[in-house]
Amino acid sequence: MTNANKSLVVITGASSGIGAAIAKSFSAAGHPLLLLARRAEAMQALALPNSLSISVDVTNASAIKAAISQAEAQFGPVGCLINNAGVMLLGQIDTQDPNEWSRMLNINVMGVLNGIHAVLAGMKARKNGTIINISSVAGRKTFPNHAAYCATKFAVHALTENIREEVAMDDVRLITIAPGAVETELLSHTTDEAIKAGYHDWKEQMGGVITPENVAAATLFAWQQPQNVCVREIVLAPTRQQP
35 and which of 43, 95, 123, 177 could share a cystine (Cβ 3.0–4.6 Å)? Predict the structure, then answer.
Protein backbone atom coordinates (compact mmCIF):
# COMPACT_ATOMS: atom_id res chain seq x y z
CA MET A 1 0.00 0.00 0.00
CA THR A 2 1.20 3.51 -0.75
CA ASN A 3 1.63 6.28 1.77
CA ALA A 4 -1.55 7.87 0.43
CA ASN A 5 -3.43 4.89 1.82
CA LYS A 6 -2.02 5.47 5.29
CA SER A 7 -4.05 8.58 5.94
CA LEU A 8 -6.07 9.19 9.09
CA VAL A 9 -9.25 7.15 9.41
CA VAL A 10 -12.03 8.35 11.73
CA ILE A 11 -14.50 5.76 13.04
CA THR A 12 -17.61 6.57 15.07
CA GLY A 13 -19.24 4.01 17.30
CA ALA A 14 -15.83 2.38 17.65
CA SER A 15 -16.23 0.92 21.13
CA SER A 16 -17.82 -2.42 20.16
CA GLY A 17 -19.37 -4.52 17.44
CA ILE A 18 -18.93 -3.40 13.85
CA GLY A 19 -17.05 -0.24 14.83
CA ALA A 20 -14.46 -2.12 16.87
CA ALA A 21 -14.03 -4.70 14.10
CA ILE A 22 -13.52 -1.94 11.53
CA ALA A 23 -10.98 -0.27 13.81
CA LYS A 24 -8.97 -3.48 14.10
CA SER A 25 -9.14 -4.08 10.36
CA PHE A 26 -7.98 -0.59 9.38
CA SER A 27 -5.31 -0.61 12.05
CA ALA A 28 -3.94 -3.90 10.70
CA ALA A 29 -3.80 -2.19 7.29
CA GLY A 30 -1.49 0.43 8.81
CA HIS A 31 -3.78 3.42 9.30
CA PRO A 32 -3.65 5.90 12.16
CA LEU A 33 -7.08 6.05 13.75
CA LEU A 34 -9.37 8.45 15.55
CA LEU A 35 -11.86 6.34 17.48
CA LEU A 36 -15.03 8.06 18.62
CA ALA A 37 -17.72 6.68 20.93
CA ARG A 38 -19.21 7.44 24.31
CA ARG A 39 -17.25 4.64 26.04
CA ALA A 40 -13.62 5.74 25.94
CA GLU A 41 -12.36 2.85 28.09
CA ALA A 42 -13.73 0.26 25.66
CA MET A 43 -11.93 1.93 22.76
CA GLN A 44 -8.70 2.21 24.72
CA ALA A 45 -8.97 -1.47 25.59
CA LEU A 46 -8.58 -2.28 21.90
CA ALA A 47 -4.95 -1.17 22.38
CA LEU A 48 -4.48 -0.23 18.73
CA PRO A 49 -1.23 1.50 17.71
CA ASN A 50 -1.27 5.05 16.34
CA SER A 51 -4.79 5.59 17.59
CA LEU A 52 -6.53 8.32 19.54
CA SER A 53 -9.69 7.46 21.49
CA ILE A 54 -12.01 10.30 22.44
CA SER A 55 -15.37 10.11 24.19
CA VAL A 56 -17.85 11.87 21.92
CA ASP A 57 -21.60 11.88 21.45
CA VAL A 58 -22.17 12.02 17.68
CA THR A 59 -25.17 14.28 18.18
CA ASN A 60 -22.71 16.94 19.39
CA ALA A 61 -21.38 18.46 16.18
CA SER A 62 -18.85 20.76 17.87
CA ALA A 63 -17.40 17.87 19.87
CA ILE A 64 -16.87 15.85 16.69
CA LYS A 65 -15.10 18.77 15.01
CA ALA A 66 -12.89 19.35 18.05
CA ALA A 67 -11.88 15.69 18.20
CA ILE A 68 -11.08 15.62 14.49
CA SER A 69 -8.98 18.77 14.78
CA GLN A 70 -7.02 17.16 17.62
CA ALA A 71 -6.41 14.00 15.58
CA GLU A 72 -5.45 15.89 12.43
CA ALA A 73 -2.86 17.85 14.38
CA GLN A 74 -1.28 14.52 15.31
CA PHE A 75 -1.83 12.38 12.21
CA GLY A 76 -2.60 14.71 9.31
CA PRO A 77 -5.80 15.23 7.31
CA VAL A 78 -8.69 12.79 7.43
CA GLY A 79 -8.56 10.42 4.48
CA CYS A 80 -11.59 8.38 5.46
CA LEU A 81 -14.54 8.91 7.78
CA ILE A 82 -16.60 5.86 8.72
CA ASN A 83 -19.95 6.81 10.21
CA ASN A 84 -20.83 3.67 12.14
CA ALA A 85 -22.48 4.92 15.34
CA GLY A 86 -26.11 3.88 15.46
CA VAL A 87 -28.91 2.57 17.61
CA MET A 88 -31.75 0.16 16.78
CA LEU A 89 -34.91 0.48 18.86
CA LEU A 90 -37.58 -1.76 17.40
CA GLY A 91 -41.27 -1.31 18.12
CA GLN A 92 -44.79 -0.87 16.83
CA ILE A 93 -45.47 2.76 16.03
CA ASP A 94 -48.76 2.84 17.95
CA THR A 95 -47.17 1.61 21.17
CA GLN A 96 -43.50 2.64 20.96
CA ASP A 97 -42.25 5.51 23.09
CA PRO A 98 -41.75 8.49 20.74
CA ASN A 99 -38.58 9.33 22.64
CA GLU A 100 -37.07 6.24 21.01
CA TRP A 101 -37.82 7.69 17.58
CA SER A 102 -36.04 10.90 18.54
CA ARG A 103 -33.03 9.01 19.83
CA MET A 104 -32.69 7.01 16.61
CA LEU A 105 -33.17 10.05 14.38
CA ASN A 106 -30.61 12.06 16.36
CA ILE A 107 -27.94 9.34 16.39
CA ASN A 108 -28.58 7.52 13.12
CA VAL A 109 -29.24 10.54 10.93
CA MET A 110 -28.00 13.71 12.62
CA GLY A 111 -24.91 11.86 13.85
CA VAL A 112 -24.04 10.89 10.28
CA LEU A 113 -24.65 14.41 9.00
CA ASN A 114 -22.53 15.87 11.81
CA GLY A 115 -19.63 13.62 10.87
CA ILE A 116 -19.90 14.48 7.19
CA HIS A 117 -20.10 18.19 7.96
CA ALA A 118 -16.89 17.98 9.98
CA VAL A 119 -14.77 16.55 7.16
CA LEU A 120 -16.35 17.22 3.79
CA ALA A 121 -15.13 20.76 3.16
CA GLY A 122 -11.53 19.70 3.76
CA MET A 123 -11.88 16.68 1.50
CA LYS A 124 -13.31 18.81 -1.30
CA ALA A 125 -10.50 21.32 -0.94
CA ARG A 126 -7.89 18.52 -1.10
CA LYS A 127 -9.73 16.80 -3.96
CA ASN A 128 -9.41 13.54 -2.05
CA GLY A 129 -11.32 11.67 0.60
CA THR A 130 -13.81 8.93 1.33
CA ILE A 131 -16.87 8.85 3.57
CA ILE A 132 -18.32 5.44 4.37
CA ASN A 133 -21.73 5.28 6.03
CA ILE A 134 -22.75 2.07 7.74
CA SER A 135 -26.45 1.74 6.99
CA SER A 136 -28.51 -1.46 6.87
CA VAL A 137 -30.60 -3.69 4.65
CA ALA A 138 -33.34 -1.86 6.56
CA GLY A 139 -32.35 1.17 4.51
CA ARG A 140 -33.46 -0.63 1.35
CA LYS A 141 -36.61 -2.50 2.44
CA THR A 142 -39.01 -2.59 5.35
CA PHE A 143 -39.36 -5.12 8.18
CA PRO A 144 -42.00 -5.68 10.87
CA ASN A 145 -41.45 -3.55 14.00
CA HIS A 146 -38.75 -1.56 12.18
CA ALA A 147 -40.73 1.47 10.92
CA ALA A 148 -38.83 4.24 12.72
CA TYR A 149 -35.50 2.42 12.41
CA CYS A 150 -36.10 1.87 8.68
CA ALA A 151 -36.91 5.57 8.35
CA THR A 152 -33.48 6.45 9.73
CA LYS A 153 -31.64 3.98 7.54
CA PHE A 154 -33.54 4.93 4.39
CA ALA A 155 -32.38 8.46 5.24
CA VAL A 156 -28.76 7.30 5.45
CA HIS A 157 -29.01 5.65 2.05
CA ALA A 158 -30.59 8.76 0.53
CA LEU A 159 -28.22 11.34 1.98
CA THR A 160 -25.19 9.24 1.07
CA GLU A 161 -26.19 8.92 -2.56
CA ASN A 162 -27.28 12.55 -2.75
CA ILE A 163 -23.98 13.85 -1.40
CA ARG A 164 -22.02 11.37 -3.53
CA GLU A 165 -23.49 12.95 -6.65
CA GLU A 166 -22.76 16.46 -5.36
CA VAL A 167 -19.06 15.81 -4.68
CA ALA A 168 -18.20 13.33 -7.42
CA MET A 169 -16.41 16.00 -9.45
CA ASP A 170 -14.37 16.88 -6.36
CA ASP A 171 -12.95 13.32 -6.36
CA VAL A 172 -14.55 12.57 -3.01
CA ARG A 173 -16.21 9.17 -2.61
CA LEU A 174 -19.30 8.34 -0.57
CA ILE A 175 -20.05 4.70 0.08
CA THR A 176 -22.94 2.89 1.74
CA ILE A 177 -22.38 -0.42 3.55
CA ALA A 178 -25.70 -2.15 4.16
CA PRO A 179 -25.45 -5.23 6.39
CA GLY A 180 -28.28 -7.60 7.10
CA ALA A 181 -28.47 -9.42 10.43
CA VAL A 182 -25.18 -9.07 12.32
CA GLU A 183 -24.14 -10.43 15.72
CA THR A 184 -23.73 -7.20 17.71
CA GLU A 185 -25.09 -5.42 20.79
CA LEU A 186 -27.54 -3.50 18.59
CA LEU A 187 -30.62 -5.59 19.42
CA SER A 188 -30.00 -5.18 23.16
CA HIS A 189 -31.08 -1.53 22.91
CA THR A 190 -34.65 -2.58 22.03
CA THR A 191 -36.91 -2.34 25.08
CA ASP A 192 -39.73 -4.66 23.90
CA GLU A 193 -38.81 -8.12 25.18
CA ALA A 194 -41.27 -9.93 22.88
CA ILE A 195 -39.77 -8.27 19.82
CA LYS A 196 -36.26 -9.16 21.00
CA ALA A 197 -37.28 -12.79 21.49
CA GLY A 198 -38.78 -12.93 18.00
CA TYR A 199 -35.63 -11.44 16.50
CA HIS A 200 -33.49 -14.07 18.27
CA ASP A 201 -35.76 -16.83 16.90
CA TRP A 202 -35.37 -15.39 13.39
CA LYS A 203 -31.58 -15.47 13.71
CA GLU A 204 -31.68 -19.09 14.83
CA GLN A 205 -33.95 -20.04 11.94
CA MET A 206 -31.30 -18.68 9.56
CA GLY A 207 -28.65 -20.80 11.22
CA GLY A 208 -26.78 -17.77 12.49
CA VAL A 209 -25.87 -14.34 11.20
CA ILE A 210 -22.82 -12.57 9.84
CA THR A 211 -20.07 -11.23 12.07
CA PRO A 212 -18.78 -7.69 12.60
CA GLU A 213 -15.56 -8.90 10.97
CA ASN A 214 -17.50 -9.69 7.78
CA VAL A 215 -18.74 -6.09 7.67
CA ALA A 216 -15.26 -4.76 8.44
CA ALA A 217 -13.77 -6.74 5.55
CA ALA A 218 -16.36 -5.30 3.13
CA THR A 219 -15.67 -1.80 4.41
CA LEU A 220 -11.91 -2.16 4.00
CA PHE A 221 -12.39 -3.58 0.49
CA ALA A 222 -14.43 -0.55 -0.58
CA TRP A 223 -11.86 1.85 0.88
CA GLN A 224 -8.87 0.13 -0.70
CA GLN A 225 -10.13 0.61 -4.25
CA PRO A 226 -8.31 3.34 -6.21
CA GLN A 227 -9.65 6.83 -5.52
CA ASN A 228 -11.11 6.94 -9.04
CA VAL A 229 -13.23 3.85 -8.23
CA CYS A 230 -16.25 4.36 -5.99
CA VAL A 231 -17.97 1.22 -4.74
CA ARG A 232 -21.24 3.02 -4.18
CA GLU A 233 -22.95 0.36 -2.09
CA ILE A 234 -22.23 -3.06 -0.63
CA VAL A 235 -25.14 -5.14 0.67
CA LEU A 236 -24.15 -8.22 2.67
CA ALA A 237 -26.24 -10.59 4.75
CA PRO A 238 -26.42 -14.21 5.83
CA THR A 239 -27.03 -16.41 2.79
CA ARG A 240 -30.20 -17.74 4.43
CA GLN A 241 -31.57 -14.27 5.14
CA GLN A 242 -34.40 -13.94 2.64
CA PRO A 243 -35.69 -10.38 3.18
Answer: 43
